[in-house]
Each structure stands twice: as C-alpha cells, then as structure tokens.
Design a protein that fits this description.
Elements: H1 3-24, H2 40-64, H3 73-80, E1 94-96, E2 99-104, E3 111-112, E4 117-118, H4 121-131, H5 142-163, E5 180-181, E6 188-192, E7 196-200
Antiparallel strand pairs: 1-2, 1-5, 3-4, 6-7
C-alpha cells in the first residue's frame, strides 16, 4: 500500500466519519459536562467508527509485521505495541481544534503483556453496544464517540507516517483533519491555505 492508496481507501472514509461527527456539535457541544449524552446518532457513529478502527488495524498490522495475521484487537496490540514504529501510540495525545481544554489520549489503556491484556475504554463500549445494545444503549455517548474517532485519527496518522517513512512526500494525510491535531508530531508542518501542507523535517 502506498500513500495514494491509503488516502483513497482509508483517509477519505475517515474524513466522512469526521464530517458526520462535526455535524452533531451543532446540537451537543464538545464539553466534558456533555460526555454522558447518548443518542441513536451517537450509537450509529460509534459502531461505524469502531468498525473502521478494526478495518484499518487489520490492513495496517501486516505492514508492520508480515509474519502475523491478527483478527482482533488483542492481535493488533501484539503487533503495534511491540513495534518501534508504533509502540508510542498509547502516549499520543490529540487536541480538539479551537477547544484547547479538550485533550484526548484514546489509546492510553491499551496494554498487552505476557500475562494480561486490556482494551481501551471506548473499544469496550463499542463492543458492548455492538453485541448487547439494549443493556448498553447509554454507551453510545459523546465521550465514547469522540475518543473512538480520535483513536482512529491517531492510527491514521501513524499509518501515513509509516508508509511515507524515509521519503520526501508528506507524512501527514491530506486534506488535513478539521477536528483534531497532534502537538509535536514528528515533522514541523507549515499550513498554507486550508489543505496544502509543506513538511519541514528537523
């Protein structure tokens, strides 16, 4: 998979999911006090985003380790959290643009060791809603949707960076996200206009 394929097959779909979420801000503001707000729309988005996280990780994992073919989140963790290229995904924090007080670290609970495994909180909620919606209806809430979308965004960023490693092309996907940004990403990026980015390596 090359950058152009990644943009077409994954990033464009991410942007569509992001656009859907941005539309909800008109009705439910991004604020910690609204995190528990749940709705059918948030359920729909959580299911769509969670599914795409699975799809992207399934496509990305073999790029990092072609000897394995994981089929679940634990298998993806075994690859990503043991790769020098992606093991810091758990430490990445992303900010919501124009709302500086909102900082998300969606992969912080993703842990795998020889003796234990733990999924991110929003991933657990995604599966609860997916498999037992009646009992877990309220898990389709703002907090889980924004964290799952941020989690997908971060994996997209790592995937693009790995695909573009040691090349002269941009290591961030374009058009850029309207919602999220990661401070101190590996390259300094000068934004010219809305979508043109000039990448300046340190």
């Amino acid at each position: 998979m090359i950058r152009e394929q990644f943009i077409q097959r994954y990033w464009q779909y991410y942007l569509a999911l992001e656009e859907d979420f941005i539309k909800t801000i008109r009705y439910v503001a991004i604020n910690v006090s609204n995190y528990s707000t749940f709705s059918n729309e948030f359920i729909r988005q959580l299911l769509s985003i969670g599914s795409e996280v699975d799809v992207l990780l399934k496509g990305f994992s073999p790029i990092l380790d072609s000897s394995k073919s994981p089929g679940n989140i634990k298998g993806y963790a075994d690859i990503l959290l043991n790769s020098d290229l992606t093991k810091h995904v758990i430490d990445v924090k992303c900010k919501v643009k124009k709302i500086p007080e909102i900082e998300l670290q969606p992969w912080k609970d993703w842990i795998i060791t020889d003796n234990s495994y733990n999924s991110p909180r929003w991933w657990v909620s995604y599966n609860q809603v997916k498999h037992n919606r009646i009992t877990n209806y309220s898990e389709g809430n703002l907090e889980n949707v924004i964290n799952s979308l941020a989690g997908l965004y971060i994996i997209e960023m790592f995937c693009c960076k790995v695909l573009c490693n040691n090349s002269e092309v941009l290591t961030v996907p374009t058009p850029i996200s309207e919602l999220f940004e990661i401070e101190n990403w590996e390259n300094q990026n000068i934004i010219v206009g809305e979508n043109l980015i000039i990448s300046v390596c340190e």
